[in-house]
# Entry
Amino acid sequence: MMEINGNRLWESLMEMAEIGATEKGGCRRLALTDLDRQGRDLFVSWCREIGCGVEIDEMGNIFARKEGRNPDLPPVQAGSHLDTQPSGGKFDGVYGVLGALEVLRTLNDHDHVTEAPMEAICWTNEEGARFPPAMIGSGVWAGIFDLDYGHSRVDPEGKTIRDELERIGYLGTRSCSLSPVKAYYELHIEQGPVLEAQTKSVGIVTGGQGCNWYHMRLHGMDSHAGTTPMPYRRDALQGAARIIARLREAVLQQENALVTVGTIELQHNSINTIPGEVFFTIDMRHPDPQVLSGLDQKLRDLVDEICREEKLDPEIDLIWEAPTVNFDPECVGSVRNAAEKLGFSNMEIVSGAGHDACQMSHVVPTGMIFIPCKDGISHNEIESAEPEHISAGANVLLHAMLQSAG
Amino acid sequence: MMEINGNRLWESLMEMAEIGATEKGGCRRLALTDLDRQGRDLFVSWCREIGCGVEIDEMGNIFARKEGRNPDLPPVQAGSHLDTQPSGGKFDGVYGVLGALEVLRTLNDHDHVTEAPMEAICWTNEEGARFPPAMIGSGVWAGIFDLDYGHSRVDPEGKTIRDELERIGYLGTRSCSLSPVKAYYELHIEQGPVLEAQTKSVGIVTGGQGCNWYHMRLHGMDSHAGTTPMPYRRDALQGAARIIARLREAVLQQENALVTVGTIELQHNSINTIPGEVFFTIDMRHPDPQVLSGLDQKLRDLVDEICREEKLDPEIDLIWEAPTVNFDPECVGSVRNAAEKLGFSNMEIVSGAGHDACQMSHVVPTGMIFIPCKDGISHNEIESAEPEHISAGANVLLHAMLQSAG
# Structure
């Protein structure tokens, strides 16, 4: 039975991790920075080394293709992203891209030609850390966002995705839009503690939880910290602090619900001025759309109540809704078959995070493969995975793709 | 009885306010920026127009001097600052500098020569908004900070006070250190609601409340917002939010106590990452040193308790303590005499804010004069004061200084 080269895959992961390496062993390679360009260039060079054709689309998504015997068949694809969180790890996203590359390399080693073409994909700006929202490249491809929207997203300095794509030389000409695909797979670390706790090597991902992202702004009044009596204040940060703490209390009442405030900024930072305006974000998730909708209402009620008490004017902007996702039964089946055939311990699992696969699942048959990561930690420099699991996941990807490609 | 020229003072205030004017009618003229240089240049040109000698010291403090009859007498001084908050008003500080200038202009109009010399002073970086801590220029002069400390304070971009003084041409050669002073007065808007509520034109300031400034840092762990179950999290911002809200609750139990969190920053802002590190500041004030010390302990207990529950590692750094200040009885008496003689409604008041006068009061005889400001609002673009009160305060300053100067 064909097997991927685990050492080669591991070494490629380590080489990629040197681009944007951080002191604590993580990676900071934000989307469309010079470092992202270096990572993309390295991936493209590896694809060309094994004779793949490489195309870049209008969103900077990279498609490396190994032709099949039947040029009329749609491709079987696998991919993920090379951009990282500001303080990210070596595996999130990168494993899915280089795992897909390792599948193509393995076919090349064995001179194995499939019926359908096989593609490895690097999607642009999956993290959304530099350009919110997340999963933009795959989202535009899948028709969830239009191209203008994708191009015009801005980073905190006001630079657009289009300008930055052009600057780093990755504004391609291939159309960024849906075309026929036989199956799309994505290989990823779990980014949570479940597989490790259950001592399983492989997670057969059946779908993803729903997620809402909010931009919040509270307007109060700047005034002097030393002379404004407490009852006269309209302190925007006090309002935010109470909302942040109370919202978590509400979410803790609800099994499987998650809430995170990952961004907070005052209009003016000054030690002796009462903050007149605060901006913060909320990330709220639940596998059940009904429950998520209830939490949305809870948030709005809480903001109303606290802002009334604190004499603040709130703005709540639901900037992004990722619906609950159910993956394609046939793709999920191919992943299960591959894991069983290869003899890896496995279990079904729902993805806690959003992935490019979630965007793809709305328009093409999609499946995902998880492997454990140490202590369930991700979006952190100490993110870590075992070489044994890295190999297992890539072998499952290889055989699931082979089953789809014929 | 000699009187200042209220129209001229008002027009000078309005002209200075054009430098760094904001859309909402306020002022943004941060210490040692190009705008601060423009403001300083304008003040110096006005001082020279009336024949004053102007000297700049090593901290960039500006001393404009009108000689007296007796060159052996120490000067009677008045001053304040021209730097503003990031979103400040037209009067905070500026009124004290241009009020002192108006006194010198008035003496010049009347060819009135006092026994002692009279000086108008502009102190460097009173706000501390760009270079914490506050009241640096007067603090070095009064020996509360040494010169190296003053020169080496940095802004958020890492630029030092010394480099920025040099850049804008205000690194002077006069020694920035204590020299004999007969009396120091400072004219200021109240920045609080008391005089307005009591319908008094003039506040006779008897002293200032104590103030502690803290730098706080909480260390948790960055991790993924979608995959980290709530009980596994070490969310630094949740810890900060609870401390901010609970600290206010504690302060509300204590009459006359004030607490403000005016700065908050995450190490990484990312919508879908649990914050692993947060920095924030605390400004805590009370007129009674005993009570302030009790609040300090309360803060430390609260941080211990919450960080234990949230699995965070806290750092508490008390970066600055401004002790309670009592002004000089003779200077306070001169202010009272002047207000009574001129027939202005008046009351005694304790300053809620720190002022350059608080630094001066540790080493030279010091007094302050307050006037009301609209709704007690300051450190805000809508900060406002009545021309009638502006004139009243400057006339009190004139006559208090004349009494000290003989």
Remarks:
- Chain B has a mean pLDDT of 96.
